[in-house]
Amino acid sequence: MIKSAFNEGPRLTSNPLVRKHAVGGCFLLVVLLLIGSLLYSTISWMWDDQRLPLSKIVLQGDLHYVSANDVQKAFAGLEHVGTFMSQDVSVLQDVAESIPWVSHASIRKQWPDTVKVFLTEHQVEAIWNGNALLNNSGQVFNGDLGQVDDGRVKLYGPEGSSIEVLTVWREWEPKFENLQLSITSLVLNDRRAWQVILDNGIRLELGKESLQERIERFFALYKNLGDATQRVSYIDLRYDTGASVGWFPEQDLEQENTDD
């Protein structure tokens, strides 16, 4: 009788070593499934809007114009504020920096429900084109003009010229101060011509060219005018040499003195 070769040798399923590895593998698989299920449940719980909503705002910074209420209103404008885990900090930063007067915002989340907002405000340097403001870097921003004192210089210029006009004002103002004068308005018009209005009411027409020489010419003329400067309406310096002077009528001056 011929015996089958399959009947020879030990059967694999009956090998104790194989059974041991199979049981160990099944146990490891169960453990991994449990860990995965636990992680999934934990992450789902943490991302659930009802579980960890961002509900507190801590406002920081040396602030004069921006309040916590301003920040709260800005964040309330978001379509959806996520959880501690899901909310993108860069989105909150963009919203905070859209608030008038805010120059820079730094946002941090603090476990489990707090947003820390550190704000830096614009430092006002001038009023720009009558309806906006300039900071000390020449950046235009839309702060409330009613919160700015009346002593700020008024600068005017075409779009994109704010830094240039601010730089020129900073350069010229100390020169006028040497004569106890101050620039109240500085205008760069669309034709690139400059105009200055001083705190004593005199308007200077400087034009486009030889600006430094024309300003020095004004200083020399102003010193020679003496008390007559009170009658000066404007001085046009748009000449190669000399200047033309516009005078207030005598009756206007008398009326002004009576009103005082």
UniProtKB/TrEMBL annotation:
<dbReference type="GO" id="GO:0005886">
    <property type="term" value="C:plasma membrane"/>
</dbReference>
<feature type="domain" description="POTRA">
    <location>
        <begin position="52"/>
        <end position="122"/>
    </location>
</feature>
<dbReference type="InterPro" id="IPR013685">
    <property type="entry name" value="POTRA_FtsQ_type"/>
</dbReference>
<protein>
    <recommendedName>
        <fullName>Cell division protein FtsQ</fullName>
    </recommendedName>
</protein>
<dbReference type="InterPro" id="IPR045335">
    <property type="entry name" value="FtsQ_C_sf"/>
</dbReference>
<dbReference type="GO" id="GO:0090529">
    <property type="term" value="P:cell septum assembly"/>
</dbReference>
<comment type="subunit">
    <text>Part of a complex composed of FtsB, FtsL and FtsQ.</text>
</comment>
<comment type="similarity">
    <text>Belongs to the FtsQ/DivIB family. FtsQ subfamily.</text>
</comment>
<keyword id="KW-0132">Cell division</keyword>
<feature type="transmembrane region" description="Helical">
    <location>
        <begin position="21"/>
        <end position="47"/>
    </location>
</feature>
<dbReference type="InterPro" id="IPR005548">
    <property type="entry name" value="Cell_div_FtsQ/DivIB_C"/>
</dbReference>
<keyword id="KW-0472">Membrane</keyword>
<dbReference type="Pfam" id="PF08478">
    <property type="entry name" value="POTRA_1"/>
</dbReference>
<dbReference type="InterPro" id="IPR034746">
    <property type="entry name" value="POTRA"/>
</dbReference>
<keyword id="KW-0131">Cell cycle</keyword>
<keyword id="KW-0997">Cell inner membrane</keyword>
<dbReference type="GO" id="GO:0043093">
    <property type="term" value="P:FtsZ-dependent cytokinesis"/>
</dbReference>
<comment type="function">
    <text>Essential cell division protein. May link together the upstream cell division proteins, which are predominantly cytoplasmic, with the downstream cell division proteins, which are predominantly periplasmic. May control correct divisome assembly.</text>
</comment>
<keyword id="KW-1133">Transmembrane helix</keyword>
<dbReference type="InterPro" id="IPR026579">
    <property type="entry name" value="FtsQ"/>
</dbReference>
<dbReference type="GO" id="GO:0032153">
    <property type="term" value="C:cell division site"/>
</dbReference>
<dbReference type="Pfam" id="PF03799">
    <property type="entry name" value="FtsQ_DivIB_C"/>
</dbReference>
<keyword id="KW-0812">Transmembrane</keyword>
<keyword id="KW-1003">Cell membrane</keyword>
